[in-house]
Backbone:
């Protein structure tokens, strides 16, 4: 029965080993997918290279369908899987800051580590800058604490908000992603 | 980007992919505002990438 970390099946050291193996695979496939290259990632925002969109949403849909069906088949207890809590204002604000940084850096936190590990100096620069940003946030936390904790909605899913069953929500997101892939391919062909 | 990830309680991996796959409302707010900011600011940052 999974999640293995919540049921204790892995133990704490087993969970650490699993984390290392998953991290290794994550970095490997990001690099092999070309996602350690800042110009390639920045192409997402100029609609010349939509790899970011395609990788992100194929990963998201795979995880979503896997979680949904493994729960239905009794393999995974989805109610034990941590659902991030929603804070509307800080997450919208964080998204804007993050998107601006993503555009300028051409890398996100994970891919900056991949780029740095592949020997790209811009990746190392982004990694250091990101850590400085996190440190500054923590040092100045008293100033931003009220924004950070603003507009909490708790752990809530889109399907609860819209009022449809999880199955309907999963089907809608899957179809939207498939339509998005078709549009992305057409855009790339036109710009090529 | 570090500050943004702190405010949002996660980055592309932790919020967008993991939370998005669980259909967390906050994760989708993060995805939407991240891409919106990227596309709105893209023309201003064009010099960096050409």
Residues:
């Amino acid at each position: 029965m999974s999640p293995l970390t919540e049921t204790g099946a892995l133990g704490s050291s087993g969970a650490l080993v699993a984390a290392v193996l998953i991290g290794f695979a994550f970095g490997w496939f990001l690099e092999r997918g070309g996602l350690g290259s800042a110009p390639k990632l920045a192409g997402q925002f100029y609609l010349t290279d939509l790899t970011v969109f395609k990788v992100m949403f194929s990963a998201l849909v795979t995880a979503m369908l896997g979680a949904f069906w493994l729960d239905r088949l009794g393999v995974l207890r989805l109610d034990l899987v941590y659902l991030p809590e929603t804070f509307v204002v800080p997450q919208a604000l964080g998204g804007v800051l993050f998107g601006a940084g993503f555009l300028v850096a051409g890398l996100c936190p994970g891919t900056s580590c991949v780029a740095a590990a592949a020997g790209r100096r811009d990746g190392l620069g982004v990694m250091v800058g990101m850590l400085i940003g996190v440190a500054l946030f923590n040092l100045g936390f008293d100033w931003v604490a009220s924004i950070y904790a603003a507009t909490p909605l708790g752990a809530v899913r889109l399907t609860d908000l819209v009022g449809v069953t999880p199955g309907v929500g999963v089907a809608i997101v899957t179809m939207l992603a498939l339509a998005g892939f078709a549009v992305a391919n057409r855009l790339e062909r036109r710009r090529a | 980007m570090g500050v943004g990830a702190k405010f949002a309680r996660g980055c592309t991996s932790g919020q967008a992919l993991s939370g998005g796959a669980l259909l967390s409302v906050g994760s989708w707010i993060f995805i939407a505002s991240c891409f919106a900011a990227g596309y709105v600011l893209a023309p201003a940052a064009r010099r960096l990438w050409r």
